[in-house]
Design goal:
about 375 residues; alpha/beta; six-stranded mixed beta sheet; three-stranded mixed beta sheet; about 10% strand; globular
C-alpha cells in the first residue's frame, strides 16, 4: 500500500452491540453513542473499541467505517433462551440478559459446516464449540443461533484459560465476606485468575497443561478432566435443546489443535450417535484444512473447522460498501459456495502435507 488513499473502507470489530444491532453496520455518531451506552456491559472491550474507531475516523475521515459485532449473530435467540430467572425489571431497566459472543466465528463455522454436510444452512442443526483462551458453545437450530454459553459478559459458560465459567454465584459472595473483597477485586479473580489457571495454579495455555499432565501433575490432569467434562455437558444439553444435531464442530485454537480435549469431550457420547476415530482425531492438528474426526458410521458428524473471522469482516465491509449487505438470513457469503477455497490456506496446506501426509485422508470438502 503506497498511501492511505488506496483504502476504500475500514472495518472495526466491536465486542458488544447489545440489542441494538442484528448485523454489521456503517458507523455514524448514533452508532458510536450506542457503543458508549454499552460501556457498563463491556467495560474491558467497548471503551477500547470506541477509542480505535474514533482514532481511525480522524486519520481516514473521508472513507466509510463499519462495525462488525460479536453479539449480532446471537440476536436470533428466543427470549426463553436469553433471559435469566432474575427480576424481570432488571431486563426492562438495564437490559440484563444473555448476549453471547464469538459471533463472527460461529457464523463462519456454521455456514461452512452446512457446506460440508451438503445441506441447506437453514435446515441444519449444529453444536459448535469455539475453544481458545476464551471459550463458548453455540446451539444452532435451523441455521440460527438458538442458545450460547457466554452470557451478559464473556465470563459465563465453559471453563476458559483464566475465566471461571459456570459456578454458583453465592460462592463469590461467600469469599467476598470471608476475605473482604469488593466487587472489582472479585471480578478480577473470576476473569483473570480462575479457569485453567485457577485449577492448575500456574498454567493457562492448554499445551503447558497437557505436558504437565503427562509428567504426572495431578492438578493439570484435573484441569483437563474438568474442561472436557464441562464441554461434554454443553454438547448434551444443546443437542437436546435443538432436537438433535447434524454435527458437532470444534474450532478456534484449542478446538483446532487440542486432540486430548476433543477426545475426552466426546467420550461416552456413543449413545447419541457420536463416534470419534482416535487416529483421525490425532491427525487433525491444522489451521489450513477442514477435517472430519468421527468414524464413517457415526450418525453425528464431528468436524474440526478452522475459523476465519477476518473473512467475515472483509465480506461484510465490502457488501456494506456496495449496498448489497443484509442479515445472514438474507445474505450469502462467498465461503458458502461448494467450491470455495481459501487460497492462502490451500498454499500453506500443500507445505504442511509434506510433513503430515495423513491430513489428506481426513480432509473434507463441500458435499
Amino acid at each position: 500500500m503506497k498511501d492511505l488513499s488506496s483504502i476504500s473502507a475500514v472495518g472495526h470489530r466491536v465486542v458488544h452491540g447489545g440489542e441494538k444491532f442484528t448485523k454489521s453496520v456503517r458507523i455514524n455518531d448514533n452508532v458510536i453513542q450506542t457503543f458508549k451506552s454499552l460501556y457498563d456491559l463491556a467495560p474491558l472491550h467497548n471503551p477500547a473499541n470506541v477509542i480505535g474507531i474514533e482514532a481511525a475516523m480522524q486519520v481516514l475521515p473521508k472513507v466509510p467505517h463499519m462495525a462488525i459485532m460479536d453479539t449480532a449473530w446471537h440476536q436470533t435467540m428466543p427470549k426463553h433462551s436469553f433471559l435469566y430467572a432474575t427480576p424481570y425489571e432488571w431486563y426492562e431497566n438495564y437490559k440484563l440478559r444473555r448476549y453471547g459472543f464469538h459471533g463472527t466465528s460461529f457464523l463462519y463455522v456454521a455456514k461452512r459446516a452446512a457446506v460440508l454436510l451438503g445441506k441447506d444452512p437453514f435446515k441444519t442443526n449444529l453444536v459448535v464449540l469455539h475453544i481458545g483462551n476464551g471459550a463458548s458453545a453455540n446451539a444452532i437450530k435451523n441455521g440460527r443461533s438458538y442458545d450460547t454459553s457466554m452470557g451478559l459478559t464473556p465470563l459465563e459458560g465453559l471453563i476458559m484459560g483464566t475465566r471461571a465459567g459456570d459456578h454458583d454465584a453465592a460462592l463469590d459472595f461467600y469469599v467476598m465476606d470471608k476475605e473482604g473483597r469488593n466487587t472489582k477485586a472479585m471480578n478480577d479473580v473470576l476473569n483473570k485468575k480462575s479457569g485453567i489457571l485457577g485449577i492448575t495454579g500456574k498454567f493457562s495455555d492448554r499445551r503447558d497443561v497437557e505436558i504437565a499432565a503427562e509428567q504426572g501433575d495431578e492438578r493439570a490432569r484435573l484441569a483437563i478432566e474438568m474442561e472436557a467434562y464441562r464441554i461434554k455437558k454443553y454438547i448434551g444439553a444443546y443437542t437436546a435443546a435443538i432436537g438433535g444435531t447434524d454435527a458437532i464442530v470444534f474450532t478456534a485454537g484449542v478446538g483446532e489443535m487440542g486432540t486430548v480435549i476433543r477426545a475426552k469431550a466426546c467420550e461416552g457420547l456413543e449413545y447419541m450417535g457420536v463416534k470419534i476415530d482416535p487416529k483421525r482425531n490425532a491427525q487433525s492438528r491444522t489451521r489450513n484444512a477442514e477435517t472430519i474426526i468421527s468414524t464413517d458410521d457415526s450418525k453425528v458428524k464431528v468436524f474440526v473447522i478452522p475459523t476465519d473471522e477476518e473473512r467475515v469482516f472483509v465480506e461484510d465491509v465490502v457488501a456494506l460498501l456496495k449496498g448489497t449487505y443484509d442479515e445472514h438470513t438474507h445474505f450469502e457469503y462467498a465461503f458458502q459456495k461448494k467450491d470455495y477455497i481459501n487460497k492462502q490456506r490451500e498454499q500453506d496446506l500443500e507445505r504442511e502435507l509434506q510433513k503430515k501426509p495423513g491430513l489428506k485422508g481426513i480432509q473434507v470438502r463441500g458435499a
